[in-house]
Amino acid sequence: MRRRSLAALLVTSLLLLIAALAAPATQAGGGCHMPGAGDVYTEGDGTSVIRMDVCSFVPTITRVPVGASIRFLNTSNIEHAVVGRSGTWGSEILPVGKEFSETFAAAGTYPFSCPLHPGMVGAIVVGGEAAAATAAEAPAMASTSATSPAEPTAVDIGPLAIAGLAGLGIGAVAGVLMAGAFAARRRNAGG
Fold first, then answer.
1. Phi and psi dihedrals of 132, rounded to 5?
2. Are residues 79 and 114 in the same domain?
């Protein structure tokens, strides 16, 4: 009987491990894992581009002048989203090839992440000496690109949270069903 319990525990653990590895939301990693993570691509109008590549933001840290626009481009083969700290700005889920832009009108550091992939993080540093050097190297920006919405918009990450909870629920149900099946098998073998 003790052998069966151990076997049931091992099978359940293996199934949960397989489920965890198969879920795309378990992929993670910051831009520090990507070659060329420090490369900044700036378009002709002064817009900086941050790629969502595999499970990294490239570059991880971007320095821009006040009023700069950032374009987040999903160049990966899976969906991503970008959300600023506390959800004050960000995108919906971006399918492969889609993009999202945000303009930063005030100096400061703006951390962001992909809520679908833990560890996929980055930051935008707006203003300061490094941003001034970047601005001097980039072409002059049009005055219309220096504007931003008066109030930050909240991002609804409810569907993302529901997807994560659904995965946990499926794993829990599978574990309970496996434990029940092994308990029934044990009762039938003993009686």
1. -65, -40
2. yes
